[in-house]
Write a structure and sequence with these properties.
The complex is a heterodimer of chains A (about 140) and B (about 120). With about 140 residues, chain A is mainly alpha-helical. Chain A has one domain. Helices cover about 70% and strands about 0% of the residues of chain A. Chain A has 5 helices and no strands. The mean pLDDT of chain B is about 75. Helix content of chain B is about 80%, strand content about 0%. In chain B, α3 runs parallel beside α5 and α4 runs antiparallel to α5. Chain B has one domain. Chain B has about 120 residues and is an all-alpha fold. The chains are: A mainly alpha (about 140), B mainly alpha (about 120). Chains A and B meet through α3, α4 and α5 of A and α2 of B.
Chain lengths: ~140, ~120
């Protein structure tokens, strides 16, 4: 699990950088999922206890959604009549939507790869996974 | 109706400073709905509240679009020469669909007049 730490840190630190915005989360999310695939294919760490994997993905989803929601809500809270940069706000809403969608898309594509490459052990997720992500994407889309 | 649009295109065709100020304030107020109720935005259990928020926003946007559409029509009616009307409509090119629809009938008529004038010259 230590090998994943840098990806967790990247997701955490990139979302705090003011100059990079939410867009910078896409790469660490993709790297994290790819690294999880490597662990899955080359070790039995998750095979022995699939609940570990499910819990990890739930936690990752929660973290990503929290970041996206926090940034977009912060942008909305900070708008004032004197400093109302609509383009900036909309760009962050769009990025938030793409970041949340990236998580589901990359997970789904990687799950398919894992199944094709190693059908004995396939990724399995909790039924709740992506519910929060879909709510976030849908509301950002409305915005 | 976007803030940038009011600053750029609309300023070129509507010279009424008070109207522009009012439009800007109305645009900001639309987003203030989300600003003030930000905790409802991502709460899964508050879908109804979120829907109401979007509905209120759409209502405010519709009202503003109507006001701006009316103001543009008035401004258009006050311009007499077909060349000036053509130039004015040219500036509307990027304004949203509602306004484009409002202007499309006028545009055809003005374009015909403008072509006649140009051909005569």
């Amino acid at each position: 699990m230590c090998t994943l730490e840098r990806h967790f840190n990247a997701i955490d630190s990139n979302s705090h950088k003011k100059d990079t915005g939410l867009d910078s989360l896409k790469e660490p999310i993709t790297n994290l999922i790819n690294h999880l695939k490597l662990i899955w294919m080359n070790t039995k760490h998750f095979h022995k206890d699939i609940a570990r994997f499910k819990n990890l993905m739930d936690a990752v989803e929660k973290e990503i959604n929290n970041k996206v929601q926090k940034v977009v809500s912060g942008k909305l809270r900070n708008i004032t009549e004197a400093k109302f940069e609509l383009g900036d706000l909309m760009a962050e809403v769009k990025s938030g939507m793409q970041v949340a969608q990236t998580f589901e898309d990359v997970y789904t594509a990687t799950k398919r790869d894992v199944k094709e490459e190693n059908s004995e052990y396939s990724w399995d997720e909790s039924p709740e996974l992506f519910k929060e992500t879909r709510t976030t994407v849908s509301r950002l889309n409305e915005l | 109706m976007l803030y940038g649009l009011i600053d750029n295109e609309l300023t070129q065709v509507i010279g009424d400073a008070n109207f522009l100020k009012e439009s800007k304030e109305a645009t900001f107020d639309m987003f203030k709905l989300f600003k003030m109720q930000v905790e409802k935005l991502f709460d899964k259990s508050r879908q109804e509240d979120f829907n109401k928020l979007v509905k209120d926003f759409e209502l405010a946007r519709g009202n503003l679009d109507l006001k701006i559409g009316r103001a543009i029509k008035e401004q258009f009616a006050s311009v007499r020469s077909s060349i000036d009307k053509f130039k004015m409509l040219e500036k509307f090119k990027n304004i949203n669909k509602v306004l484009k629809d409002n202007s499309s009938d006028n545009f055809t008529e003005v374009l015909e007049d403008y072509t006649k004038v140009e051909l005569r010259n």
